[in-house]
Amino acid sequence: MIVAGSQSQILASRIAKKSSEKLACVEYERFPDGELLVSVPEIQKAKRSIIVASTTTERSWIELLQLIDICSETSHVDLVIPYMGYSRQDKKFEPGQPISARALITAIDGVDSVTTINIHESSVLDWFDCSTQNLDASSVLTPFFDVDSPIVLSPDKGAIDLAQNVASSIGGDSDFLEKERISGDKVEITPKNLGIKDQDVIVVDDMISTGGTMTEAIEMLKKQGPSSVSVGCIHPVFAENAVLRLFSTDIEKIVTTDTIETTLSKATVSQVITNSVVE
Ligand code: R5P
Fold first, then answer.
1. Sign (positive/negative) of CA torsion 182, 192, 252, 149?
2. Which neighbouring-strand residues pair with 39?
3. Which of 35, 61, 88, 111 would suit a FRET pair with 156, their CA atoms being 20 to 30 Å apart?
């Protein structure tokens, strides 16, 4: 049985449609004091449960812990967290800070496997006490870029693999930029001469949050006279005015997936998850 978190209802439905697993109807109630109560009445009929829940908000983490507890009455629980919120706080950046990713992961108990998609830092998976896998969904982005022999760039070293994977499946070259983060929504990209005049360029990153990284990268690239600049990311976090910041740079298109369900999430990771987790 596929059990969806509220932030992954479309993705979970797509996975159910591609497989023979039934999609459970999850119900939500609030107690008078504001506490959340999640229930899945049909769970009694299930032998195996596959929870699909992106944790984009505090509420979705609470939901997830309740769903895991509900599903623990089935004999096997596979947990898919397509986008794991708080995974970027994977260390103490300043004294006195928490390691939020570790705090949340160690609250998860009683699942047989955990699957993530292009998680920001895969070493956080070591904090789970079950088998884990981090799937690469770059292949689902590529059909949406209708350009020949583009140069595919990552805006920082962290997304080099993603750029290489997209480049090799489209048939183009890849390169990376150097980024320094100045604040939560401000970054500096070191100018780099890439020889991209009259070339199609695709910039890919694991996630777009405030859009600061992408807009800085695009502005630097546009000065070099490319014939087009398109953008791709796996996780469209799109905090605050990120979409406006991106489109105001006059990009060709944005391609992104349904690990976070937005109106721009045209690519789906459902087949990637179905192949590796459900079947
Ligand atoms: C950071 O290393 C990530 O790969 C992204 O580049 C970053 O999270 C994007 O954040 P923003 O859109 O706020 O610049």
1. negative
2. 27
3. 61
| pTM (predicted TM-score) | 0.96
Over the Cα atoms of the chain, what is R_g? 20
Asked if 36 and 59 touch (Cβ cutoff 8 Å), the reply is: yes
Which pLDDT value is given to residue 184? 84
Query: Is the separation of the CB atoms in 48 and 76 below 8 Å?
Result: yes
Residue from 213, 243, 260 to probe ligand 1 pocket by mutation (most atoms less than 8 Å from CB): 213
Q: Which amino acid is at 195?
A: G
Residue 48 has which token pair?
């195996």
- From 182, 189, 206, 237, give the residue whose CB has the most ligand 1 atoms within 8 Å, as the site to mutate: 206
Separation CA 182–CA 186 (nearest Å) = 5
Confidence class of residue 185 from pLDDT cuts 50, 70 and 90? confident
Ligand 1 centroid–CA 207 distance in Å is 6
Q: What whole-number distance in Å separates Cα of residue 163 and Cα of residue 154?
A: 6
Q: Is the CB of 156 under 6 A from ligand 1?
A: yes
Q: 244 CA to middle of ligand 1, Å? A: 16
Q: How far is the CA of 106 from the centre of ligand 1 (A)?
A: 25
H helices present in the chain, as ranges: 9-18, 58-71, 100-105, 138-141, 160-170, 212-222, 242-247, 270-273
pLDDT 10s digits, 35-64: 999 999 999 999 999 999 999 999 999 999
Q: In angstroms, what CA-CA distances link 53 with 17, 59, 68, 161?
A: 17, 11, 10, 25
Catalytic residue among 179, 192, 222, 266, which? 179
Cα torsion through 80, 84, 88, 91, rounded to 10 = -60
Residue at token pair 């812990």: 65
pLDDT for the residue numbered 279: 86
164's tokens: 């290489």
